[in-house]
Amino acid sequence: MLQHFKFKPMFENSQLPGWNISFFYKSERITGEYHPDGSIVWLSKQPADEENVKKMIHELMLFHVYD
């Protein structure tokens, strides 16, 4: 489970796509960039269970950004 999930636009012009994301997973702080095509570039250590984490992030982004 992801905890303390946060996202903010990468650019001041919110029309430009892309978000910086951060969260805690298994007591580790993870940061990355979420791109409009659903790809994620990890800025911190890649999570051990990356595919499961990506699924959770996609669900959260769909709920918060694309609703």
Please give a structural write-up:
It comes from Planococcus shenhongbingii. This is YheE family protein. It holds the Pfam family DUF5342. With 67 residues, this protein is of the alpha+beta class. It has one domain. The chain has one helix and four strands, in the order ββββα. It has a four-stranded antiparallel beta sheet with strand order 1-2-3-4, covered by helices on one side. A hairpin with a 5-residue loop joins β3 and β4. The longest helix is centred in the last third of the chain and has 15 residues. The protein is globular.
Core attributes:
UCP037692; globular; single chain; 67 residues; four-stranded antiparallel β-sheet; alpha+beta; YheE family protein
Rg from Cα? 11 Å
Annotation, overall tally of beta strands: 4
The domain count comes to: 1
Global morphology: globular
Share of helical residues: 10-25%
Oligomeric state of this protein: single chain
InterPro entries: UCP037692
Pfam families: DUF5342 (PF17277)
Protein name: YheE family protein
